[in-house]
Amino acid sequence: MDNTKPLIEPEPEPDDDGRIRRTGNVLTASTHIITVVVGAGVLALAWAMAQLGWIAGIASILTFSSVSIFTYSLVADCYRYPDPVTGKRNYTYMQAVKAYLGGTMHLLCGLIQYTKLAGITVSYTITSSTSLVAIRKAICYHKTGKEASCKFSNNPFMIGFGILQIFLSQIPNFHELTWLSTVAAITSFGYVFIGSGLCLSVILSGKGASTSITGTALPPADKLLRVFTAMGNIALACTYATVVYDIMDTLKSHPPENKQMKRANVLGVTAMTILFLLCSALGYAAFGDNTPGNILTGFTEPFWLVALGNGCIVIHMIGAYQVMGQPFFRIVEMGANMVWPQSDFINKEYAFMMGNVMLRFNSFRLVWRTIFVILATILAMLMPFFSEVLSLLGAIGFGPLVVFFPIQMHIAQRNIKKLSLRWCGLQLLSSLSFVVSLAAVVGSVQGIIKDFQKTNLFICVDNSSFRNQNVK
């Protein structure tokens, strides 16, 4: 009997759509969700809690988390069309909207979704450089004293971050990001626990600030704008709609993708909610009305722990950049493939071995992704307040992407009768989400106006503290 093994391993059987067989599961999907939703903006939720107070703050976090679990379960059922188990796959959010709601809605969804995705990469570049500058300042103050002039430019750190992302952006697709997403998810827990731990130490030492049920006392007009911004921050922190179908498209077919995604959604959002409540409550209890936009900036000692927390933010931003950028890369490359299906420059893959690892190379991917990362880095250097602009984009996107489109697709899929009790309830939820988005827009515009008044464009100033805006 010939026991020799073949030199070349047989190709695995393709999936039901002819593509490479998917191997993702509930755990990997939950990891991707946590990587996206537990962004550095979670450190700003203590500020949001300070504006709303204990009752409204906790209620808002629980409400938005519950809405997210509900609407993302509707999204999961629309991954396949028309049947949620045996139907044809929708590889992107846009495709699902087109299948259920038609072409006009499809274009509106794409405009909102991919504009936000592109903007997020710019914001992550700014956030990572801000944290790196904070590390240098912490070390500088520790060595020379708090009276020293420790000012550093963000630009070199943005350039370094951009160079790293050029290499990471050559990862072919979302399916191969599990390792990077896992590292990012772990570090997100790291800086959240460091920030929360430092706040807890202040509370246990008896130096915590006074708090109130209604939050920060301000004149009515200022209070209203602060409440709008705070609620917008909480709502935006709960969203991962821009990548939900990219995550689903990594799941194996058995059990059905929608069932796996619903479980992953519950696990991911539950973990998110616990972290949000922990971080916001401890931060508010420690700082009271003076809660900073990022609770880590409220501490200078122990400097090594503060530096470690900011380092965790940087590592998380490295992974989150790819998790959010890959869907944008994908839609552009799919479009190029449709326009030039015979072009070797766009479509031909070159495989080569590096040690025991098989790597794939594509000319178009190399050129266009490199250009995109360079442009995103330059934009971050030119507009260091871009996170406020991103908050505006996110505020506009919350209502449509997280609530409106999922509800309308669910109504179309289930043929829910107009003016029935369920139809009215769903439409009421959609209307309320529009109000929240509009309120968040008002708060974001206020922040942009203030930044225009005090920021010199094209000069990346030293700014080691986050705005009171969510950078997600």
UniProtKB/TrEMBL annotation:
Residues 1-20 are annotated as: Disordered. Its main location: membrane. It is a multi-pass membrane protein. It is found in: Cell membrane; Endomembrane system. The keyword Cell membrane applies. GO terms for biological process: amino acid transport; auxin-activated signaling pathway. Pfam families: Aa_trans (PF01490). One of its GO terms (molecular function) is symporter activity. One of its GO terms (cellular component) is plasma membrane. Keywords: Amino-acid transport, Auxin signaling pathway, Cell membrane, Membrane, Symport, Transmembrane, Transmembrane helix, Transport. The keyword Metal-binding does not apply. It comes from the Eukaryota. The chain crosses the membrane at residues 26-48, 54-75, 177-204, 266-287, 303-324, 366-383, 389-407, 428-449. Residues 23-449 form the Amino acid transporter transmembrane domain. InterPro entries: AA_transpt_TM. Belongs to the amino acid/polyamine transporter 2 family. Amino acid/auxin permease (AAAP) (TC 2.A.18.1) subfamily. Carrier protein involved in proton-driven auxin influx. Mediates the formation of auxin gradient from developing leaves (site of auxin biosynthesis) to tips by contributing to the loading of auxin in vascular tissues and facilitating acropetal (base to tip) auxin transport within inner tissues of the root apex, and basipetal (tip to base) auxin transport within outer tissues of the root apex. May be involved in lateral roots and nodules formation. This is Amino acid transporter transmembrane domain-containing protein. It comes from Psophocarpus tetragonolobus (Winged bean).
